[in-house]
Design brief:
The complex is a heterotrimer.
Chain A lengths: L2 H21 L5 H21 L5 E5 L7 E5 L1 H24 L4 H20 L3 H19 L5 H32 L4 H7 L5 H19 L7 H7 L3 H35 L1 H22 L3 H21 L3 H32 L10 H4 L1 H15 L5 H15 L3 H25 L14 H19 L2 H7 L2 H6 L1 H10 L1
Antiparallel strand pairs in A: 1-2
Helix pairs in contact in A: 1-2, 1-4, 2-3, 3-4, 3-10, 3-13, 3-18, 4-5, 4-10, 5-6, 5-10, 6-8, 6-9, 7-10, 7-21, 8-10, 9-12, 10-12, 10-13, 11-12, 11-17, 12-13, 12-16, 12-17, 13-15, 13-16, 13-18, 15-17, 15-18, 16-17, 16-18
Chain B lengths: L1 H20 L3 H23 L19 H32 L13
Chain C lengths: L3 H13 L4 H20 L6 E6 L2 E7 L2 H21 L5 H19 L3 H22 L4 H29 L11 H11 L8 H8 L2 H22 L5 H18 L4 H22 L2 H32 L15 H15 L5 H12 L3 H27 L12 H19 L2 H7 L10 H20 L1 H4 L11 H19 L4 H20 L1
Antiparallel strand pairs in C: 1-2
Helix pairs in contact in C: 1-2, 1-4, 2-3, 3-4, 3-9, 3-12, 3-16, 4-5, 4-9, 5-6, 6-7, 6-8, 7-9, 8-9, 8-11, 9-11, 9-12, 10-11, 10-15, 11-12, 11-14, 11-15, 12-13, 12-14, 12-16, 13-15, 13-16, 14-16, 15-18
Classes of the chains: A mainly alpha, B mainly alpha, C mainly alpha.
Main location (chain C): membrane
Keywords (chain C): Cell membrane, Membrane, Oxidoreductase, Transmembrane, Transmembrane helix
Membrane topology (chain C): Multi-pass membrane protein
Amino acid sequence: MEAAVWLIILPLLTAFFIGISKLYFKKILAPLVTGSAIIYLYLLILVINHSYPPKVYNVGAWGLMGINLMVDPFSAMFLLMIAILFLPVIIFSVKYIKSHKHKYFIFTYLMTAGIAGMVLTADLFNLYVFLEVSSLSSCALVALKNTNKGIEGTFKYLIMSTLGSFFILLATILTYSLTGTLNMAEISLEFKDIPFQIKSTLMSFFVFGYVIKIGLIPLHAWIPDTYEDSPIPYNVLSSGLVMKSAVYALIKVLYIIFGIDFLDQSGMLHIGVFWGVITFIVAHLLAYQQSNLSRLLAYSSVAQIAYITIGLFVGTEGGLIAGNFHILNHAIMKGTLFLVTAIFYYSLSAVKIEDIKGLGYKFPILSFIFVVASLAIVGLPPFNGFISKWLIVEAAIESGFVYAGFFILVGTFLSLTYYLKVIVTLYTKTEKELLIVKPTLSLRLPTIFLGSLCILFGIVPSIPLSLINKIPKFLLDNGEYIRILLGG
Amino acid sequence: MELAYVVVIILLSLGMYTIITKKNLIKIVMGFTILESSLILLLILVSYKPGGAAPILDKPYEIVVDPIPQALALTAIVIGASVTAVMLAVVIKIYKRYGTLNVDELRKLRG
Amino acid sequence: MITPGFLYITGAILLLLPVNDRIKYIISFLITAGALIVTFYLIPGYSFQLDFLKFTLVPVKVDNASKLTGLIFAVGGLAAVIYSIKLCSRFILSLIFVFIGSALTVVFSGDLFTLYVFWELMTISSSFIIIMASDVTKKTGYYYCLMQVAGGLSVLWGTFLQYSATGNLSLNAIEAGIPFFMLAVAIKLAFVGFHTWLPLAYSKAPFYVTVVLSIYTTKVGVYIMSILLSGINILAYAGLISALFGMVMALRQNHALKLLSYSIIIQVGYMIIGISIGTEKGIAGAIFHLVNHILYKTVLFMAVGVVIYTTGKDTLENLGIMGRKIPVTSIATLVAFLGIAGVPFFNGYMSKSLIKEAVQEPLLTWGLNLMSFGTSLIFLKFIYYAFFKNSNVNLTKKPAISMQLGLGFLTVLMLLIGIHPYLLENLMNTDLGIHYFDKKHMLSGIQPFLWSIPVFLLLKKYVVKNYVRLLYFDMYRKMAKILVTTGYQLSNYHDGKLHKYLLWATSTLIILLVLLMF
């Protein structure tokens, strides 16, 4: 069963062929990228279907010495997210991106290869390499519009993200020198004898490195900067996949290598929850101040990631399910919001919130979808964000973080203040003549697809939850994971 | 041996110091390069065994240094080089657009 | 299983389809009438269970009180939809259907989860009705939505506390949850201090929206209060204070919609008192008063709506049109006036007597008398402008037939209940053993009304007077300002300096190291 390997190879190959097609056959770009994305979707579904019980793939028949790929429910959930987001974004971008089209697709495919690699690998150093692949191509995508703000954002992103990667690499090397292996399962076994202090130092390096990429306050400053003037379909992938893959790596490292008991002893769980609470309150307050729509959505992403952090750091089964469900939901909701924003930008170069005044009457369906997605992200019923927030609060209260639960509700209220502001602007009539380029079907269809998922997962949450419910088994009990990885 | 670790720490602090205090974009990039080299040195030190031979097993040696960190070091160098290249490319773009290399003047994005 | 709420929401989806006006009328009528019939045939004791996530939800649970409330909601829905069908667009109508449907589902909900979901759905749909209905209501809708969501979130928090303490979602409030449920209900009921949204939203929104909102928003709060918070005696005094506040404010208004909005606060005061007494009579009285209040207040709002529709404004002067040009509206207004004033043989009388009967403490009895007196006084002012003061306002257009139809339907119901008050007891399957038309009740019922007439005549120049608008202090806007200022300052810290960001990062690393190592 080689499909898992192809998940990494196919986007790399596609990126290569896009480069070639630029030189020789410029016409085939659209069929090439969509065709590849469709095959990719098929591969993803194939791998997701075989994710339970977890499977290990040895690349190059080197046994444990070689590179191991592992598909467990946790990575399957991320693959599902790629499956949901990737094809719509590619179809959307074919029409949307006008300049540097080839570069855009090359970097998007490279980025996806990096993310797929991060999600699949069971090796600490490979995790770092794939992380670098995805974040470097993501940096390049930010700069693609070639505007002052875009370049400045790229630089800030690059500096912060490289600082993060540096600490991740440092922690990886130190781990290797302590344990003599890079395989997560073996590290985890070796770690049982390492003194507490050393382990917690290592952990703080890991946490710091990944949190820069996740963007909790006060390490968040680069996120709105990168979102402000980058190609908007990229923002969908960035908030949906790039930031989330860092969350994935962090959780994998913490839960598999260090184990839940150590997290509890060292107080990391408390730090995580508290950090999350601070982050979303500040991020909501900041988001209210924004006049640029992408920036507003960026701050909202920071806040949503904080909810996810709370869910994942609560440290119980319910918390992990809730956090993972919110990861999926946030990718869908934020994707929808960004795609609608992108259409507004495409149709009349709307950047600021006041630019979208009156569009509610020009684009009734798209605006309706925008409203649905923003209510979902605020966490109002009956949309998907509500279900996952409910689960997060429930898990937080269950394990004693009552304050976190309470503040999540306060945060819901705060987030309503700015989303409602945008919605009200959307439905305010304006005197101005609007010159509108009509969005084509290939722009509208992906948006409507993601928007309808918001409603579907809100009313029938059991569809994604049937996969997500299997996740905690392998994270909370790392013995199970280790056994499968070593035994495979 | 210990001295080498001290060098790693010195390089690391030097890099961090450069990144945090210097205003010039090129110097910030240099700071990252210093950080990168401190890590590569660390990687080599991790694998080092006194008296070990290079891990090319053409004949049975008594002590061989650990080959994995060396492979890692190669990868780290490649990644470091590409990161530096991207950074410098961005710096060039910034210089073309802003006409300055002072990081404090990159303040179009705020709020 | 078809429930009325489900019917309405199906109707809302049907209305989203691009249909022409004829079909729109047909769908609306079928759905509203169908919901009324379905509600009528619901059997008390019926309940329906559903598994969702790991909870067992009870989306439908019928008992006597909820059936009566549901019936009056369905009646109100029928009348309000008929009334407004000509005036509002298809999309607004669809939102109104969602609103009514969720209100009905809240009434029949059997667990806190369903309750919260549809409570919030009511908020969302009503906010969007307000936001979309006209150009001048955007800010009002924003304010309304935030207030209501704050209430909804406190329901949610109460629910969480309840769930974590007991492990189930059944509809009864435990100790820890009570303050939060109270807060939620207080906002929904426009309790004094939390009332700011009500006059604002009801006076700014187009009148057909106000008609729909006034039927459900506060009444759902009353119904939920009767389930979750009945029998907390201290709240009776709070209700009294709220009502007296409403009275004073209502007397000062020059606009009919504002006057009616504040009078809602008074009438809700009766219901709070009834529920807080907690006896069978008290709660039944409150529910009956809810029914009666929906009837006459809706009629009054509809009548004012007709005035706005025909003359363009809702100042009290414009009410003068009633005496002369629009007979159906005038009769309906008179009936509603006598009902709200508590005159025997009109509908408000029976529930007021019931609440008065349930109240034991002299202070509260006096308070109730004062409230009745105040209500009569306010509506004498209303009637004075409508029928006795000379006015020279002219009709600009005729009221639509559909509006008069909705109005007439409710008026007939009012008269029916007024003459035969046992109707409601029969519908609720209770026998409270009270003789509405004996001497004692008649006397105590008519007294405040009779007193109010000479007082009105004596103090006419104070009552009938254009008061300056009070610039009242709004705590919530002040709080919002503080939050926004904090956000502004935080935002100013992000001044684009990379070094600052790097410094934040390094200090985070140090803090993290310190926290984790020690």
